[in-house]
Amino acid sequence: MGMATGGAEGEAVCEINVTPMVDVLLCLLIIFMVAAPKPPNEQIQISVPKESVTQVPSDPNSPLLVEVLPDGSAKLGQQQLSKNYDEMIKQFQANEKAQSDSKLIVTAKGEARYGDVIRVMTAAHESGISDVGIASDRL
Fold it and tell me: CA–CA separation, 52 vs 137, rounded Å?
């Protein structure tokens, strides 16, 4: 067994011995991990609504709700909207609340088709209602 103790003829070793340095660093790491305070275990109270909010017809601040039915027809509140695109735009323009609030929510009932919902949203937007949103039952 041979072991090198240095360079030629007993010169000093010019290499850094890393093992003791790693041992010291690992010991320091363990000490700091043990000495560090535990993170706070705080709970934030939130309130989740138990029931979905329904639109009340007498509420003056609620936005108008347009329901798109599975047969392709649509209702603006209690008013039946025309299936003709141009007539639908005129009905949106004639509605004072929709024009003054410039806000409308569209919801689809049952198996309503995507194209029917987009047609109603486009007609509302073309009638001058700038804020047209989608209501969802699922979260």
Answer: 8
